[in-house]
Amino acid sequence: MKTPVIDIHAHPWLFEEVCTTEEQEAFVIDMTGLYKSGSFPAEEHFIQMNYNGVDKCVLLPLDLTTTHGVSLGTNEQVRALQDAFPDRFIGFASVDPFRDDACDVLEHAFGTLKLSGLKLHPGKQRFYPSDEALEPIWQICEKYNKPVMFHAGMSVEPYTLSKYSHPMEFEELAYNHPNLRICLAHMAWPWVKEACMLMLKYGNVYADTACLYFDSAREFYDQVLTKDIPITWVDRGLRHQIMFGTNDPRLEAIRMKKALEALPLRPSTKELIMGGNALVFLGLEEYTRD
Amino acid sequence: MIEHNEIQIMTTEYNTFIRITEKVRDIVSNSKIKNGVVYVITAHTTTGIAVNEGLECLESDIHDLLSNLVPEDGNYAHARFLHSYGAMGNNPTGHLKSHLTGNHCVFPIADGTIRLGKAQEIYLCEFDGPQDRTVYITLMGE
Prior knowledge:
The complex is a heterodimer.
Chain A: E1 6-10, H1 22-32, H2 42-52, E2 56-59, E3 62-64, H3 65-68, E4 70-72, H4 75-84, E5 89-91, E6 93-94, H5 102-112, E7 118-120, H6 122-125, H7 135-144, E8 148-150, H8 171-176, E9 182-184, H9 192-201, E10 205-208, H10 217-228, H11 231-235, E11 242-243, H12 253-261, H13 267-281
Parallel strand pairs in A: 1-2, 2-5, 6-7, 7-8, 8-9, 9-10, 10-11
Antiparallel strand pairs in A: 3-4
Chain B: E1 2-10, E2 16-19, H1 21-29, E3 36-42, E4 47-53, H2 56-69, E5 81-82, E6 87-88, H3 92-101, E7 104-110, E8 113-114, E9 120-126, E10 132-141
Antiparallel strand pairs in B: 1-10, 2-9, 3-7, 3-10, 4-9, 5-6, 7-8
């Protein structure tokens, strides 16, 4: 059976189902810095997915309760989107780790809403992944066998500080929780080698390809995945830990996928990156590294 | 008298030519303006409005011509992060093809009918799809 193509990193921020008021739309635009964007129905997203040959995408909300007073999509909205389009969406939860009821919110998200993982943004939610105060969060994720998608590396968004999401800030978490699958999104750019080091050392660390900050998609991937590191690292030692992601709606999903597909990788590696690794990350399939 | 209308089109391809002649014809036919001109204007900077003969072979040739003039792997200054957008400007080919194609066309209206040559087809040209697109149809006359 063909492995589905899974975009592991997409956001529902601008879906009309999330931007239900003008105030919410204005908040999303201010928080994300997508200053010339507007909301659109979720179904429009499928037209782009269909053209791009993407079967499913993971929806990542963001809970900013203590830092900004609201969320970029709630867990309930993500659940509703997944219920409406179960063949296309895989919903993740988010929780502000500093809210008083963080554990209750996460228990509800996994136990009742049955969401598939957790999205956190250290640079925006202002925490270090090694902060011991977050230990209960990790324990809940392990209890439900749910992975964590972290924003990692630089963030171009307003109200963010990159120091919180340097790859080295994730090592203690990966070390202390070997059964917790974590993804350093955006290849933790610009600290790509550090992200590779963590993936080499820890089998529970993944990265996604949702990065495009200079030049065209083809030029940027050529720089990041064939010059900053040799493409052989991707094709050999890390082939089971890198996942296709777009960071939609900020980046360029169509051109990024074409650029990824043009990289000189084994077909089997491309299949892993485009969906096979996501199935393992999501806990839907198993892989034991040798 | 001036009358403003618009049509919405959700495109489904990255680059494609969409025939909109009948939609324009219908708007003209249903208008109170019986003599004047009709403008067909795109609301976007990565689409174009073109007029040509409605033949698949010509559509293919025009697509190839534009793709050769504006290759996807060209060295474009626009391929950078746009701080005013909060997003990448990775669609220079769309902008340049739009520039070459132009943003509008205009036709006479006589006796309540758009005056088109027998071979003329009006196209919305998508150069950065799939996207939801708006085309303004503005009639001026009496």
